[in-house]
Amino acid sequence: MRALIAALFCLFACAAVPAAAQSMPSGGDEPASADRPGLFADIIDAIGSGSRMLIRKIQPGEERDRVEDPRFNSQESPRDSLMTFIEAMNLVQRGYTDIGYTRALASLPQGATRQQADVLYEILLRLGPVSPAELPGSDQAAASGDTRFEYFPRGTDHAWVWQAADPPSNATVAVLRSGEGTWLISERTLDGAPLFLESIADLPPQFSSEDNGEYFIMVFSPLIERTGLFGWIAFLAVFAIGIAAGLLFKRAMAWTARKADRIDQTFLGATLRGFGNAGGLVVFTFFFTIAIGFLALGPVLQALHYEIPRFLMVVAIAFLIVSLIDVFVAFLRERVSHEKDHYDQMVITMIRRILRVLVISIVLIFVLQNILGMNVGALLVGFGFLALALSLAAQDSVKNLFGAVSVFINRPFVIGDWICFKGEMGDHIGVIEDIELQATKLTDLAGNLVTLPNMLFIDREVQNLSARGYIRRRVDVAIPYRAHADEIDRALQAMMDVFDDEEVVEDSGLEGREEKAHVSFSGFDDSWLTITGYHYYFMGGEGEIQRDTDRGWFSYLSHCSLVNRKLVQLFGERDIEFAFPTQTVEIVPQKGEPITVRSTQSVEAD
Q1: Average pLDDT over residues 261-283
Q2: What is the pLDDT of residue 174?
Q3: Quick one: pLDDT at residue 190?
Q4: What distance in Å separates the CA atoms of residue 503 and residue 518, rounded to the nearest whole number?
Q5: Does the pLDDT at position 533 exceed 90?
Q6: Is the Cβ–Cβ distance between 181 and 76 less than 8 Å?
Q7: What is the dihedral of CA 128, 132, 134, 139, to 10 degrees?
Q8: Residue 278: is it exposed, middle or buried by C-beta count within 10 angstroms (0-12/13-18/19+)?
Q9: Is 1.10.720.60 the CATH classification of the domain at 469-573?
Q10: d(CA 397, CA 214)
Q11: Which of the given ranges, 268-277, 278-287, 378-387, has the highest pLDDT on average?
Q12: Rounded to whole angstroms, how far apart are CA atoms 433 and 441?
């Protein structure tokens, strides 16, 4: 049976031993805390006890047989009497009832009962681990000449008991000398024990660090020995039914939500999805509550009968609240979508994230404080010191946070915008995918996901391409040098005719606007004359910008192709030449002199 229990322990030992080592008392050498651990700490202590048992099984060497050869088995001193009683009652918990009670009653006054021994043992467990070092031995008792040793309240530091509970003022645990070399626990201790135990019953038992697995066996042995095969089969069966029922409920709600989406009932669909997640967990919790009732958990784990369902219900409520947040956000997005306010969409996304984090934080604090019994205040203080220690390393994180705030206040861009950002490694051109508290994610033209720290947007230039209402393009055309200006006039008119072409005007969105195209003879270059034209490409109607329409960079490039093609076509029809790179080599031979090479070159400007 111990091997089976040890195997059960192996499932938990690796993760829990460090925590158990922190929570286990130090054998009485340190004052006990007023904040006594709860159920979670009891389980960790039990796992820690199992770890020591497993280690002793693995380590070589002989171990003292606590049944046949106990460490304490006499009443020669207060130390011997109390430790004999405690070790004997540990044997009772392990199942050695007769021999355990026989040894335990030997440290009590004559006529004491097993029930009185049980009550006193429960008191000693709740007062904390009893260390032999804090109890006087036979030499110390003989040297002092005392006839009475008071373990509680004056024998050790038990001030925390009055902070954590309300014991009677006359509560005591004392050992009296009864004849030469014999010390017994006093009758007054046994008489006041029931009332004393009742006042401190809510305090969890604390076993000694010398415990070698007794606590682990005491906690988990009922789960193995008393549950039985039928109990485990019933538990697994109902547990599996609970999982199936929860999943079925969730999928049914999801199917209904899809039906609602098909008839444009968006809010109803979102509500049903959220209710499906929370309701599925509630259904599982119902079946799990039934299933866990088939397990014999013992006195320490008994609270799990309602603590686990309580935890699951808290999580289900959290799911429901999160789903209601999603429904509220969907409603806001529907309202904002009609106004095409992209900044409001971004703010709604951030509000959704903040509310989710807030709900999860509240649920986490509730679980830690009320279910796991942790001191959240002390935990937060510890995090405060840790945050102070890491403040220098977190400077960039703080800068990124202020960068995010700057983005929300100044609105240089929103999610979905095309931007051009001048980074340290070059320009980044792409679309904004997400704006988080620490970084902004951008997908560039090559499809790469680029993560940019928000602090970079505080002091660097950002071009928002999606916020422009139009693009004004410059077109330079080079024509050859001529002796007459007629060809310049014909080139100017041809370029203007292209800009005024019906198809070009319609594609550019220029119709009905005051802005007009313009052409000019802009200058003389080395080997050509330059004709410059300016024409517009509008992203939408009056007041519309690129993010509000389907037009963008690629549609603009298509428009440029249309204009360029018509320029080439019209110049060809009107016999207007384009300047192109030329080179003339003239060789002039002269008698008695070397050959002289002269060259001229012209370069196309288009």
Answers
A1: 78
A2: 92
A3: 93
A4: 17
A5: yes
A6: yes
A7: 160
A8: buried
A9: no
A10: 49
A11: 278-287
A12: 5
What ranges do the domains of the chain cover?
2-224, 226-389, 395-466, 469-573
Say what the pLDDT of residue 569 is.
92
pTM beyond 0.85, yes or no: no
Distance in angstroms (rounded) separating the CA atoms of residues 96 and 90: 9
User: Which string of b and e fits 33-67 if b means at least 16 CB within 10 Å?
Assistant: eeebbbbbbbbbbbbbbbbbbbeeeeeeeeeeebe
Residue 308: strand, helix, or coil? helix
Q: Mean pLDDT for the chain?
A: 76
pLDDT at position 63 over 60: no
Query: 535 near 499, Cβ under 8 Å?
Result: yes
C-alpha 309/C-alpha 285 separation (Å) is 6
Write out the two tokens for 19. Answer: 């925590």
pLDDT at 454 over 80: no
The predicted structure's pLDDT at residue 293: 84
Percent of the chain with pLDDT over 90: 15
Residue 414 near residue 343 (C-beta atoms within 8 A): yes
Pair 279, 253: CB distance under 8 Å: yes
Q: Where are the beta strands (DSSP E) in 306-388?
A: none
Please give the Cα distance from 536 to 516 (Å, whole number): 8
Mean pLDDT, rounded, for 239-253: 90
Residue with structure tokens 């050695």?
Answer: 96
* Residue 121 near residue 94, CB atoms below 8 Å: no
* pLDDT at residue 292 tops 80: yes
Tokens of 39: 């159920």
∠ CA(124), CA(128), CA(134), 5° rounding? 90
Contacts of 256 (CB under 8 A, 6+ apart): 272
Concatenated DSSP letters of 462-511: EEEGGG-SEEEEEEEEEE---SSSHHHHHHHHHHHHHHT-HHHHHHHT-T
In this model, does residue 549 exceed pLDDT 60? yes
Among 438, 448, 441, which Cα is nearest to 413's? 441
Structure tokens at 13: 């030992």
The secondary structure of residue 367, as a DSSP letter, is: I
The contacts of residue 90 (CB under 8 Å, 6+ apart) are: 66, 100, 211, 214
Fold observed for domain 395-466: SH3 type barrels. (2.30.30)
The answer on pLDDT for 463 being more than 50 is yes
Question: Which residue do the tokens 């043992």 mark?
Answer: 121
Distance in angstroms between the alpha carbons of the first and the last residue of the chain: 92
Alpha helices in 127-208 (DSSP H): 138-144, 159-164, 187-199
CA dist., res. 202 & res. 538, Å (int): 76
For the record, the structure tokens of 34 come out as 């007023």
- Could you tell me the pLDDT band of residue 212, with boundaries at 50, 70 and 90? low
Contact assessment for residue 464 and residue 412, using Cβ atoms and an 8 Å cutoff: yes
Contacts 24+ apart (CB under 8 A), 549-557: 551/509, 552/418, 552/466, 553/418, 553/465, 556/471
Does residue 575 sit in helix, strand or coil?
A: coil
Is the preceding peptide bond at 453 cis, omega within 30 degrees of 0? no
* DSSP H or E segment with residue 49: helix 39-58
Q: Is the per-residue pLDDT at 58 higher than 70?
A: no
